């Protein structure tokens, strides 16, 4: 549904029709201009640190556990490495327990973590909703819990008690991805969206993607494909072939709530005779190493909305330190950043990771007195 409300007109009045057409054209021009401005901001090099610069000194002699949803996921594994690095600097004992990608596995990992009686737990990619009772149990034992990508909204979570969900705001990520398609297509994108209903955060992203495309009068939302992340290698090749047959040249852009969809899609596009820099132009979310490589070589992906994994891992440690001191969370939520071929040589891109050169390590060290 368009965000532009049509003004009432008098039937048979050519003057009214011309005026309405002119108004709609101006609205479309304004929307496209906004899309290009916001895309320019999202692809600009990272500026100076805008996160916390004050807070409690390092709490001594703490023990934290990183409960990973699945260490086979590159981003989750990278966050764990960042938490371990920050824990060493702040002076805490660290341990990793892997949930192996299943609810049963994560439940077991979380139960093990609680039994070890740590001071804090960092959840890596674990959606908290299936584990409310376990997290309430941790809270009753005085264990502080925070995490990375553990719910659809950044910030503290009241129930179950979680100090902070460190995350780039999912709606803003979805919006930035869709606005890139609008800007890159000059307001004429034919879009297929790939999402996974298992994750609340994924649905928030894909809903925002769809809403933005619907606001673009010259764009078309062709389909929203709900397909699980853990089954992409089996599903996406055939689905790609089916979508090509269904939409043909109308399908000019794809958006995925994760880059993994395009890992599986590229061979099918190549088999269909589509050139590496042809259409559909794929826009991912996650900032996986394979996505960076595709964008750099201009092969079946043009952009990814990447999270600053190491920076966010350090924030997880800082939020726990604030909780140990009885202080409120920092409240910091970082901006969305899109990597494209034009900026992939900056902010960690050459190393296939988003690591802003904004001085966050120095800022946290100063806060902690380390």
Q: What brief labels describe this structure?
A:
single chain; 370 residues; alpha/beta; 16% strand
What's the layout of helices and strands?
Blueprint lengths: L13 H29 L20 E6 L5 H17 L2 E6 L4 H13 L4 E5 L7 H9 L3 E5 L6 E3 L4 E5 L3 H15 L5 E6 L4 H16 L4 E7 L5 H16 L5 E4 L3 H12 L9 E6 L2 H9 L5 E4 L2 H16 L13 E2 L20 H9 L2
Parallel strand pairs: 1-2, 1-3, 3-4, 4-6, 7-8, 7-9, 9-10, 10-11
Antiparallel strand pairs: 5-6, 11-12
How is this structure best described in words?
By secondary structure, the chain is an alpha/beta fold. Helices cover 44% and strands 16% of the residues. It has helices at residues 14-42, 74-90, 103-115, 132-140, 170-184, 200-215, 232-247, 260-271, 289-297, 309-324, 360-368, and strands at residues 63-68, 93-98, 120-124, 144-148, 155-157, 162-166, 190-195, 220-226, 253-256, 281-286, 303-306, 338-339. Strands 2-1-3-4-6-5 form a six-stranded mixed beta sheet, with helices on both faces. It is globular. The relative contact order is 0.15.
Gist of the model:
By secondary structure, this protein is of the alpha/beta class. It has 11 helices and 12 strands.
């Amino acid at each position: 549904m368009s965000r532009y409300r049509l003004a009432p007109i008098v039937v048979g009045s050519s003057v009214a029709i011309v005026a309405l057409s002119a108004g709609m054209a101006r609205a479309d021009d304004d929307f496209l201009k906004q899309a290009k401005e916001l895309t320019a901001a999202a692809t600009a090099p990272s500026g100076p640190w805008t996160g916390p610069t004050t807070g409690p000194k390092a709490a001594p002699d703490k023990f934290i556990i990183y409960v990973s949803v699945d260490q086979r996921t590159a981003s989750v594994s990278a966050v764990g490495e960042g938490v371990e690095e920050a824990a060493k600097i702040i002076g805490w004992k660290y341990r990793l327990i892997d949930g192996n990608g299943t609810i049963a596995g994560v439940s077991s990992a979380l139960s093990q973590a609680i039994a070890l009686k740590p001071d804090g737990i960092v959840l890596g990619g674990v959606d908290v909703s299936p584990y409310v009772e376990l997290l309430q149990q941790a809270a009753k034992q005085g264990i502080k819990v925070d995490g990375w990508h553990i719910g659809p909204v950044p910030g503290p979570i009241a129930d179950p008690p979680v100090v902070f969900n460190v995350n780039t705001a999912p709606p803003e990520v979805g919006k930035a991805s869709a606005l890139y398609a609008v800007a890159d297509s000059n307001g004429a994108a034919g879009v297929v969206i790939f999402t996974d209903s298992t994750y609340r955060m994924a649905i928030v992203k894909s809903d925002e993607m769809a809403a933005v495309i619907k606001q673009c009068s010259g764009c078309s939302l062709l389909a929203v494909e709900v397909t699980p992340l853990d089954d992409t290698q089996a599903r996406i090749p055939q689905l790609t072939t089916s979508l090509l047959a269904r939409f043909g040249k109308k399908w000019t852009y794809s958006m995925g709530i994760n880059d993994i969809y395009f890992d599986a899609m590229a061979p099918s596009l190549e088999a269909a005779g589509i050139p590496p820099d042809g259409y559909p132009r794929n826009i991912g979310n996650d900032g996986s190493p394979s996505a960076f490589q595709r964008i750099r070589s201009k092969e079946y992906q043009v952009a990814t909305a990447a999270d600053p994994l190491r920076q966010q891992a350090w924030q997880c440690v800082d939020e726990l330190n604030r909780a140990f001191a009885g202080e409120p969370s920092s409240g910091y939520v970082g901006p969305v950043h899109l990597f494209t071929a034009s900026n992939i040589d900056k902010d960690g891109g050459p190393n296939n990771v988003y690591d802003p050169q904004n001085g966050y390590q120095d800022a946290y060290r100063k806060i902690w007195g380390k």
